[in-house]
Amino acid sequence: MKEHDVYVRTEKGLEMMRTKRDALSSELRVVFFMIDGQSRAEEILAQVAGLGVTPEAFDGLVRAGYIAMQAPSAPTPAPADAPVAAKPAPEVDRFYAARQFLNETVVNAVGLRSFFFTLKLEKANSLPDLRLLLPDYFKLIEKGTGKLEAEVLTRRARELTSETGTRRRPEPAAT
Questions:
Q1: CA distances from 26 to 6, 11, 90, 125 (A)
Q2: Angstrom distance (rounded) from CA 99 to CA 157
Q3: 82, 65, 77, 75: which is closest to 17 by C-alpha?
Q4: Count of CB atoms within 10 A of residue 92's CB?
Q5: How does pLDDT run across 12-63, given as a tens digit for each residue?
Q6: What is the 3-state secondary structure (H, E, C) of the chain?
Q7: Which of 108, 93, 122 is nearest to 33 (CA)?
Q8: Nearest residue to 42 (alpha-carbon basis) of 27, 31, 29
Q9: Using alpha carbons only, what angle is made at residue 39 by residues 38 and 44, rounded to the nearest 5 degrees?
Q10: What's this model's pTM, rounded to 2 decimal places?
Q11: Shortest CA distance to 156 belongs to which of 167, 145, 146?
Q12: Contact at 8 Å (CB) between 21 and 111?
């Protein structure tokens, strides 16, 4: 793993998530759910720092076939003095991505006990609706996997449901 690598979930990883709730340790499960095909490994590690996750977590998930490094895209040149900020995704895309994240992580954490929460998710029609569910989400994740994991996943859920939906990303250091 290199700090600037970006990972995606593989078909095997998605299948594992659907069928084998306990296939990963708590630390690897959190890393797996944080992988979104956009965030760099260093960003994910910073977000899960309190859980004792090391860079080897990515290597283990790659060896198991659950994630793969995303192919690098050609960088687009920008003026040297232009600030680099993430382009906000359309609100509908952000809503569906946030709802999917909430659903996948809560089902993985508590299984069938998430039934009533997933019904609430299905009724949600907007990012503000999803934000209203975050306290219940935290409680369920905490009950299923513990407070630290609940804090990390809820923080990510807040990012996904935020007003702007953007995170300013530092540019990779010149090599």
A1: 21, 21, 32, 31
A2: 9
A3: 65
A4: 10
A5: 988 888 777 667 888 888 899 899 888 899 999 988 888 888 889 999 999 9
A6: CCCCCEEEECHHHHHHHHHCCCCCCHHHHHHHHHCCCCCEHHHHHHHCHHHCCCCHHHHHHHHCCCEEECCCCCCCCCCCCCCCCCCCCCHHHHHHHHHHHHHHHHHHHHHHHHHHHHHHHHHCCCHHHHHHCHHHHHHHHHHHHCHHHHHHHHHHHHHHCCCCCCCCCCCCCCC
A7: 108
A8: 31
A9: 155
A10: 0.69
A11: 167
A12: yes
Structure tokens at 168: 């300013």
Type of residue numbered 95: F
Please answer whether residues 12 and 66 qualify as being in contact, where contact means their C-beta atoms are separated by less than 8 angstroms.
yes
pLDDT digits 0-9 by tens, 117-141: 999 999 999 999 999 999 999 999 9
